[in-house]
Amino acid sequence: MEAVVKTHLDPAPDHQIAVVGLGYIGLPTAAVLAGFGWSVCGVDVSPRIVETVNSGGVHIEERDLDRLVYEAVESGRLTASTAMPRAHFYMIAVPTPLRDNNQPDIAFVEAAARAIAPQLTRGSSVIVESTSPIGTTERVAEIFADLRPDLAVPSYGSKTQADVAIAYCPERVLPGKIVTELVENDRVIGGVTPACAEKIATLYRSFVKGDCLTTNCRVAETVKLVENSFRDVNIAFANELSMIADTIEIDVWDVIRLANRHPRVNILQPGPGVGGHCIAVDPWFLVAGAPEQARLIRTAREVNDHKAHHTADRIRALIEAAGPDAKIALLGLAFKPNIDDFRESPALEIAEEIAREQGERVLLVEPYAAELPTCLKGSGAQLTRLDEALEAAEVVVLLVDHDAFKVLSMEGLAGKLVYDTRGMLKK
Ligand code: SAJ
Fold first, then answer.
1. What's the gap in Å between 74 CA and the centre of ligand 1?
2. What is the 3-state secondary structure (H, E, C) of the chain?
3. What is the per-residue pLDDT across 77-107, written as a single tens digit (0 to 9) for each?
4. What is the pTM of this model?
5. Less CB within 10 Å around the terminal CB: N or C of the chain?
C-alpha cells in the first residue's frame, strides 16, 4: 500500500523515515511503516542487529514480526544501518532504563538526539517514542538548539514558526500483540508546539487505524507513565488481596470472582509479582518527578515487588513440608503467559532464589526457553519437560499461566503439594 502522506522537501533525504533503536518497539514500527509504503531506515548501534535485519531476519521473538520484517526488507523499503541517515521523520525508540536508585536514565535518548542533530534540515520532524520522564522531549529540543544554531528549533508553548517539528508519541503496544496494536490502538501525539503535533500526527494517521489525538509533549509524556502506573496500582490491589487471603486462609480466587460480579468492581488477577520492562519500571518515572506526592504509586510498586518474596517464602514452606529429598517443579519463567520475554520476570527471580537454595532438586519447565537462562546456569537446577517434571516432583508451583500448562488439573496433581500463583487451576 502507498503511504498516504508524501512530503516534498529539499534536500532529498536518503529515506522518508529513520527509526532509531531496533528493539521491541523500533523494529516492529519500522517494519509496519515499510509495509504501509514508507521508505524506512532502521538505525541501531549494534552491527549484529543491523546485519540481522538487513538479511531479512529478526533478533527478537514477537508474533508475525519475522514475516513482516522479511517482506519489508525484500520489498526494498526497509534497510538498517549503524549510521544516521538523512530523513524527513526521525522516530526515537531507544531504551530508557532505571538507575539503581530508581531514577530514570535518558542517556540513550540524548545520544540519539545528538546523532540526529547534524542530519536535520528545514522541514525535518523528530518524534520520541521511548517511555520517558516528563521534560525529555524538551531536552531533545534543547540539544538540537545547542547543536544547530542555524535552525529555528521550537520551544515549549512558543507560537513562533520553527524549522523542525518535535513531538512525543508514546508506544502503547502489548508484547505478544505488538504488530496488531501498532496499527489498531489510538495514539497520543504531544507536540513541543501545537504545529509540531499537527505535522507529526499526519505521519501516524498514515498507518494507525485508531484515533490520533494531539496534545502537548508534557501531557503526552505523563499519559504514558500514568497508563502503566494505573495498571500497576490495580495489580498491586489484587496482589495485596492475595497476601491478605493467605494470612486469613481464604481462597482469593473465589473472593475476586464473586466481588467482580458487582457492576462497578473489576479486580485484576494476582500473580507472583509484576514483570516486563514497562509496568515494573515506568511508575518509578512518575515517583521520581514528584516523590512526596506519588505515595500510592510508590507503595503499589513496593507491594508488587514484595509479592515475589512472599511467593518464594510460601514455596519454601511447601518444600519444608515435603521433606529434604523432595523434588520441586517450577512451571514457567517468563514475565507473563505465552511469551519468551524474561525481562524483570518475577517467576525467574523466584526460580533463581529457590534454585540457589535447593540446587538440583529444582526442575524448571519453560516451553519458551531453548536453554537455561544465564542467571540459572550453574545453580544445579535443570530445564525439564513438563511430563518428566510432574512425574518426579512432590512440590509443583505454577508461576506462569502459559497455555501449555492448561492440561494440568487439581485431580491430575493429586498427592502433590501444589501452589498455583496464577489461579490457573481454578479457571
Ligand atoms: N499481571 C498480573 N495480573 C494481571 C495482569 C498482569 O499479575 O491481572 C502481570 C503480568 O503477569 C506481567 C505484568 O503484570 O508480569 C505486566 O503484564 P501486562 O500484560 O499487564 O503488561 P505489559 O508489561 O506486557 O505491557 C504494558 C501495557 N500497558 C498497559 O496495559 C497499561 C502495554 O499497553 C504497554 O505498551 C507496555 O506495558 C509498555 O511498553 O509500556
1. 33
2. CCCCCCCCCCCCCCEEEEEECCCCCHHHHHHHHHHCCCCEEEECCCHHHHHHHHCCCCCCCCCCHHHHHHHHHHCCCEEEECCCCCEEEEEECCCCCECCCCCECCHHHHHHHHHHHHHCCCCCEEEECCCCCCCHHHHHHHHHHHHCCCCCCCCCCCCCCCCCEEEECCCCCCCCCHHHHHHHCCEEEEECCHHHHHHHHHHHHCCCCCCEEEEEHHHHHHHHHHHHHHHHHHHHHHHHHHHHHHHHCCCHHHHHHHHCCCCCCCCCCCCCCCCCCCCCCHHHHHHHHCCCCCHHHHHHHHHHHHHHHHHHHHHHHHHHHHCCCCCEEEECCCCCCCCCCCCCCHHHHHHHHHHHHHHHHEEEECCCCCCCCHHHCCCCCEECCHHHHHHHCCEEEECCCCHHHCCCCCCCCCCCEEEECCCHHHC
3. 999 999 999 999 999 999 999 998 889 999 9
4. 0.92
5. N
